Amino acid sequence: MWRLLALRPGALAREEAFQGLAAPEAFRPLESPWEARRADPRPWPEPLYFVDGKEREEALLAQGERVALLGSVAAGALVHQGGRMTLLSPVVRRVGVGLSEPLQVGELLYEPVEAEGTDYPSLRAGLQKVREDLEKRVAQGLSGGLLVVDGPVRFPRPGGALLGYIKTHWVRYLPEEEEALLHALRPGERTPAFQVSREEQALASWYVRLPLAPEGLRPPQAGLLRVETPLKGPYLELADLSLSLFPALASHPVKDPRAPQNLTPIGALERELARRMGSQEVVDRLLRRHLGGG
Amino acid sequence: MERIGVVLGRREATPLEFWVGVEGEGLLRLDDLVVVKGFHPRLGEVLYFGMVDHVAKLHEGEAYDTDTFLAVEGQIPVSLAYVAHVSVTRILPEEFFPPDPGSPVYLAQGEDLERALYYDAMKNQRGSTKLPAGFLKNGEVAYLNLEFLNGVKGGHVNISGISGVAAKTSYATFLLKSLLESGVLEDAHQARVLLFNVKGEDLFFLDKPNARLQEKDRAEYARLGLPATPFQSVAFMAPPKKEGYVPDLDTRLEGVRAYHWDLVQFCQRGLLPFLFADRTAMTNLGFLLAHVTEKLKELAQGQKGPSLLVEDWPEEDLPEEVRFDQLGKVRLKTFAQLVRYVEYKLLGPETGEGEGDRRWTARQARPTLEAFVRRLRSSVENLSHLVRGDRPGNPPDPLKGEQVHVVDLAKLSPQGQMFVVGSLLKDLFERKERGQYRGRVFIVLDELNKYAPREEESPIKDILLDIAERGRSLGVILIGAQQTASEVERRVVGNAAIRVVGRLDAAEAERPEYRYLPTSFRQRALILPQGAVILHQPEIPVPLLLRFPFPAWATKREEVLEDNSAEALRREFF
């Protein structure tokens, strides 16, 4: 019998997935000279999709030595078309990473998902994987236009253009000399594109500086977004388009603590996904009632 | 049945009120009627009927007001919520348990609408008592239960509303039309109406077709089951001009009779108290008033009028124009002369500090007598054309002749208005009390705040209270109106079973007199358009917002449809 070990085991920290060795040494510029670039405003492509996912660790369970992580994952898409942003119906899954058979908790049903290991970090990685798969599934259902994903580009998109964007920068891609441009970049400008390789995938990437609202203290990286797209696509065109796209969608610090990098539509999508996962309080109560004590 | 949404679960659902989420392209407006099918395994199906009294749309999940800008710019998706609050009017069967959130909500139409508004209960042994009262917002005919208007279960109508927005008089006349011609009131042919015209001359064209009546208005009358015609049987009466004997009216001359009382009627009917509008702090005076009224009655006993004969006015004291007649009596021909005579009887001869007639003075001190005479004298100017001795009296008699009597008060002084209203109501009520007329009598009186004020006492207020409290059992129904119900005697308003509100002043709408209206209706009373009223009747727990049709009768000279047919012209010329 599964017993409740902890509720809400992890704070929800979303980090850029580990990306292997992308080091300044491997730097290969795709444009020259290395200087700030601007572009004329251009219309957004239609349809313009945004995809994001969300995971929530709900409980850690124990059965003897075995441990399982219960969580909810959700992924959804927004489409911008005809001047309106519309939510496409999101997908929500309840999974138990480390379970071998479905677990019914009151009216909640957790599907079993295999885990790589039995320790907590592996379980978390397993949950993250479910989320990534779900995002991928949602993205594959969208055809044509341009798809913008929150996070790095993890899958090819044969049917249309794809942009991924990274908000926090754990990995340095630029040699020191070129990196100086990041600090000189003004809102609405970007660096030239450079090549990035990850998991056999060749990508083009560049940094964009978002406009900052005048209030507040900012770390030097604030407002910096790294954008990437498969190298096979029309990456220069997309790089110029990104200057019309991301600054316009930058969020406001009053409304979003992760402003401006957390884009407004993505913020709204995340709220919506959180809502679809159901109230955490209600889930807590159900878990306690069915799995606590005994 | 048109499904419109579901009962919401985020907000409390109770047996008396709940919230509805409108789905898809559904449309739900204020005043719309809905029905919810509830179910409980032990009770079976329960139907909740209700009326929408609040509707709202909002963006759900938006944390900031400015998020709406983002939504408009297409930056964030929004979830639009369209919710409505429903006040339950009826539960069938009467099982007061709450509906389940998620229960389907349907628009109440046809039979459901009738059940929601208790129309199915508006009947007696002889048939339906559904009196057409206007149109609901959705265009269906609204009814009120006649039994709460004609005195069977309740009586009286009270109408509030600021003037000028065509509510009070227009609605009162529409209601009369419905009463007299819808066929719902069984003895409608016996019913009598006394309409007081207090302002302008709006009511003086009730018998003329309205030239501005359009085809769609006629269709509305047809749907109400009423003929789109003016009132058929109307008598118009106006006070005479101060000089001469022509009705004092500007816009209508033909078919209007001047009315007045003669001196003998004045005395015999005991109308003297109606000259004294304020009876506050005058107990002695009140006593004297009753006494003098009795003496005048005695004096006029057996006399035929119009002038009043008195025999005990010595020659040396007579005013110049008064002479003894051949029988040795003095013939009083004007109201002023009557006043002089009363003065003589109370204070004695003008010359010297004489004493009055002890049989008249009722042992009152001289200051009281003098105060009485002063008040009497001041009424001469206002009343002399209404109470006269030069021709036989012709006071309005609403129980004879035409069915509707319009009595003009507009040009009278406040004292004159008091006198006419008081005299007519007293006479009418006494005759009904004595059983001299079998049919029902409807009295339409605007400016109730003047005749039955909350604070002061007056003889007219007594009569109105009498009518309000006992009238319905005697078949005397008051359709009263005023701008502000808060200034009218509580018992007069409180006895009205049917309450109607037109547009209200904002401060007035907040007074306790309107607490029977739910908040949303009080707010809407401030913005009611022309031709709309809120009607409350005892059986239905929510008020109804009604629209009533454009009058089929003219309400001013310009609206009169000129009859140019050969027949009419022939009548006019020959």
Q: Can you tell me about this structure?
A:
The complex is a heterodimer of chains A (294) and B (574). Chain A has helices at 120-140, 176-184, 235-249, 264-276, 280-291; strands spanning 3-7, 28-29, 48-63, 66-81, 84-97, 103-105, 108-113, 146-150, 161-166, 194-198, 201-209, 224-230. Chain A has 294 residues and is an alpha+beta fold. Chain A has a single domain (3-11, 33-292), classed as Nucleotidyltransferase, domain 5, CATH 3.30.420. The longest helix of chain A has 21 residues, at 120-140. Mean pLDDT of chain A is 87; it is low at 11-21. With 574 residues, chain B is an alpha/beta fold. Chain B has 3 domains: 3-117, no CATH class; 145-259 and 395-559, P-loop containing nucleotide triphosphate hydrolases (Rossmann fold, 3-Layer(aba) Sandwich); 262-388, no CATH class. Chain B has a 10-stranded mixed beta sheet. Chain B has a 6-stranded antiparallel β-barrel with strand order 1-2-5-4-3-6. In chain B, strands 7-8 form a two-stranded antiparallel sheet. The radius of gyration of chain B is 29 Å and the shape is elongated. The A-B interface holds A 78, 80, 83-87, 248-249, 254-255, 264-265, 267-269, 271-272, 275 and B 61, 63-64, 66-67, 70-71, 74-77, 79. Chain A: This is NurA domain-containing protein. Chain A: It comes from Thermus aquaticus. Chain A: InterPro entries: NurA_domain, RNaseH-like_sf. Chain A: Residues 48-263 form the NurA domain.
